[in-house]
Amino acid sequence: MIDFAFLDSGTGGLPYLLKLKELAPQAECVYVGDTANFPYGTKSKEEIISCVLSICNKIVEMFNPRAIVVACNTMSVNSLEEIRKAFPEIQIVGTVPAIKTASAVSEKRRIGLLATVATVQSDYTKRLKETYANDCTLVLREDTELIDFIEHKSFTATQEECEKACEPAAAFFRKEECDAVILGCTHFLNLADTIQKVFGESIKVVDSRDGVARRALDVCHISKDEKKEYNPAIRLYVTGDSENVEYKAISEKYGIQINKL
Fold it and tell me: What is the pTM of this model?
């Protein structure tokens, strides 16, 4: 049995795992990117649920985790209920757009959501807005192009190329006069600093990585203070091609070996 299995459609959820390991180095974790079915953001709800349940079955069979952290907003807002029904004995921690956080920091009451098509259009996202930001205008932007760039090009791209890829989203939210923007797809976290730089000081970029990591540790009753000297290596798996240039760059950057699931 391991502590946590992190699940995403690609490598976008890695910052969530790295945040958890920063808080609790002793946690034993694997990361699974369902790259064979990437992208998830353009799939129907039914397709997302089918793909997620299939990969979760493999994760449970191979790793027997105490908890599955669904480190993908699209997977979470469309399939959390189904995952919990299918695996009642396992703790399931979702990742959803940080609308509550954005509402708390917005003075103009105009907040943006940068996400996939499926996350933008989901009823779950609408309920989050009604619950935590009912007095705000929520400006939506689907950005499949930027997500694709991050998954397939960002780790080998120059800083200039990364900034250029983020500029259309920045221009959009500036025009809409938003003063807070939610990174509603975990892929964006890999360029979070670049996105904040391009968006500028007038827009506060927010995400949910700290909250998700702390929630995962809480549900498994793992202390953030014990056994700091024990730091098991992260194991990373992808369902698609594990030998491409992008994944080799990720492996070198984080010192994580990438395996085929």
Answer: 0.91
Mean pLDDT, residues 154-179 taken together: 97
- pLDDT over threshold 80, residue 226: no
| 224 token code pair | 């953030």
Active-site annotation holder among 72, 136, 162, 178 = 72
pLDDT digits (tens, 9 = 90+) for 172-223: 999 999 999 999 999 999 999 999 999 999 999 999 999 999 999 999 998 7
Cβ(173)–Cβ(112) under 8 Å?
Answer: yes
The reply to whether 72 belongs to the active site is: yes
Ordered alpha helix ranges (H), the chain: 14-23, 45-63, 73-86, 99-105, 117-121, 123-132, 144-152, 159-175, 192-199, 209-219, 245-254
- Report the SS3 class of residue 180: strand
- What helix, strand, coil percent values describe the chain, rounded to 5? 50, 20, 30
Separation CA 217–CA 3 (nearest Å): 9
Considering the candidates 29, 56, 166, 185, report the single residue annotated as catalytic: 185
Q: What radius of gyration do the chain's Cα atoms show?
A: 18
**Mean of the pLDDT values across residues 64-93?**
97
- Single-letter amino acid code for the residue at 239: T
Q: Which residue shows structure tokens 């699974």?
A: 32
Q: Has 185 been annotated as catalytic?
A: yes
